[in-house]
Specification:
single chain, 392 residues, alpha+beta, OB fold (Dihydrolipoamide Acetyltransferase, E2P), Elongation Factor Tu (Ef-tu), domain 3, 4-stranded antiparallel sheet, elongated
């Protein structure tokens, strides 16, 4: 019994020592966690509900036609302005030739209107001279009629000649006014018929140029639906172009995490594609205007009796550093982990100024109209007088 009691004493002391060590370890862990939270964790909000997003520029034809050529396939890189799809141009070329001929014919017809106006002016001047001559002849015959030198019948003929000359002058003046109504206060370039023919030609030129469908932006081809021989109509989606250099991240944070978030705060991100060793840097560009359920097709109805509160999430758009994406490009839809540094709370919750410049723009469609104007100018020059005639 004495040996048993002696053995129990060391065991009890050892248990107490181990228990004290365990408590000390727990206290140290708790202190470390508290220190980590106070010095680091409380200044960051994290989420793994984040995904890469970007523009998917749909390539659609502006006119209908039959596909004769497809230049790029899914995954190919394309430059802005590069031809991607060709439509059969036979019908548009014929329509363009008809519009060119119509403009040339209209220019010549309008030139004829100006010439006719000059002709009517000459006729009016001649009729005025004839009337003046007839009036002078009649006045002289009246003076000598009293002397009996001419008969009453001859005087009547001179009076009828004055009336006839007056009628001819009125008819010529009316014809001149009718013609001037077609050309008055215009030159050939600004005549309504010319402008109508020019507008038709420009439209036909654009239709013909639109048989070549070009890339509006540089990027990578995705979701190609167009096939050779397909008959497409205006607005049909042929394929999509994704500019991967302009992607961003949509991170969904709980509403309880949004209290200290502000525009312009720094964000550190990791992609599941590359792992934790590759870090991306970003900036909060916009805070969500509404939850996803608020903009869904069927919004949630919380008026029922069995309503259960669910913590909502708000989408936060994060602009990525372009330098990071050059080294490790991202794809749309990839999962991301986002960590927002919320120590700087000087920023705004919502933008305070309007957007001063377009966020996205393309100029690949401007050259077509300039080329159409050059064609119009050439046709006008070839079919017009070198000096434009103005109606007087």
């Amino acid at each position: 019994m004495e040996n048993t009691s002696a053995e129990n004493v060391p065991r009890t002391s050892k248990r107490k020592r181990n228990f004290i060590i365990f408590i000390i370890i727990l206290v140290l862990i708790a202190a470390g966690c508290l220190t980590w939270y106070l010095l680091y964790a409380r200044f960051y909000e994290t989420t793994d509900d984040a995904y890469v997003n970007g523009n998917q520029v749909a390539l659609t034809p502006q006119i209908g036609g039959t596909v004769t050529q497809v230049t790029a396939d899914e995954g190919d890189f394309v430059e802005k302005g590069q031809p991607l799809v060709l439509l059969d141009p036979s019908d548009t070329k014929i329509a363009l030739q008809q519009a060119e001929a119509n403009l040339a014919n209209t220019v010549r017809q309008v030139r004829g209107l100006y010439s006719t106006a000059d002709n009517y002016r000459a006729q009016v001047a001649a009729k005025q001279v004839a009337l003046q001559t007839a009036q002078n002849d009649y006045a002289r015959r009246q003076k000598i009629f009293s002397t009996g030198a001419i008969a009453v019948e001859d005087l009547s003929h001179y009076r009828d000649a004055v009336t006839s000359a007056q009628s001819d002058l009125v008819a010529a003046q009316q014809a001149l006014r009718t013609n001037l109504a077609m050309v008055d206060d215009t030159v050939i370039d600004s005549h309504p018929e010319i402008k109508t023919a020019v507008a038709t030609l420009r439209q036909r030129y654009l239709d013909n140029s639109r048989t070549t469908i070009v890339a509006p932006v540089s990027g990578y081809v995705a979701k190609r639906a167009v096939q050779l021989g397909m008959r497409v109509s205006s607005g049909t989606t042929l394929l999509a172009i994704v500019p991967l250099n302009e992607v961003w991240v949509d991170a969904n944070f709980k509403e309880s995490q949004m209290n200290a978030m502000r525009l312009g705060q720094k964000v550190m991100l990791n992609a599941d594609l590359y792992g934790d060793k590759i870090e991306y840097h970003g900036t909060i560009e916009s805070l969500g205007i509404g939850t996803g359920s608020a903009f869904s097709l069927l919004p949630a109805q919380n008026a029922s009796g069995n309503w259960i509160k669910i913590v909502q999430r708000l989408p936060v758009r994060i602009r990525l550093d372009a330098h990071d994406m050059q080294k490790h490009p991202l794809r749309i839809g990839l999962s991301m982990n986002a960590r927002v540094d919320i120590r700087n709370v000087d920023g705004h919750l919502l933008p305070q100024q309007t957007v001063s410049a377009p966020r996205f723009t393309t100029d690949v469609y401007q050259d077509s109209l300039e080329a159409a104007d050059k064609l119009v100018a050439r046709i006008l020059h070839d079919n017009s007088n070198t000096v434009a005639s103005r109606a007087r």
